[in-house]
Amino acid sequence: MREIITDAIRYWEPRRIAYNVVLAAIVCGYFASNLPGSKAAFSMDGVLTLFLLAVLANGCYCAAYVADIFAQYSAFRTTWIEWRWVLFVLGLAIAAIMTRFFALGFFTAQVAQPVSQ
Question: What H or E segment, with its residue span, contains residue 18?
Fold first, then answer.
């Protein structure tokens, strides 16, 4: 068990850096593309919301450990170790889509719609 957990940590933790860099780049990109309206998100509540979303994204990243350790205990361990990068890519793609969704809503200026009579 110790070997499998060590292998999982050795594989997933360096990739967490890339995961966070990609998600941060998406957030920064949407912030920059929606300037100056996106500056309104820089309140204490806005910063705390971004922090909470970052913590939740990293919590979701930890789900990879469950799948990895489970697969390593199976008879498919050798094949899994060769193909687990697919889980990383799929997880990163899903996280990037969710991050884009939240960043778009968070930084897009709300344009007041005229009231029709």
Answer: helix 2-33
Per residue in 49-61, pLDDT tens? Answer: 899 999 999 999 9
Sorted by sequence, the CB contacts under 8 Å of residue 23 that are 6+ apart come out as 54, 57, 95, 96, 99
Give the pLDDT score at 94: 96
Residue 82 lies in a domain: yes
Q: How confident is the model at residue 116 (pLDDT cuts 50, 70, 90)?
A: low
Q: Give the three-class secondary structure for 109.
A: coil
Total structural domains within the chain:
1
Q: Which domain holds residue 85?
A: 2-35+61-107
Work out the average pLDDT over 22-26. 97
Confirm whether 69 is domain-assigned. Answer: yes
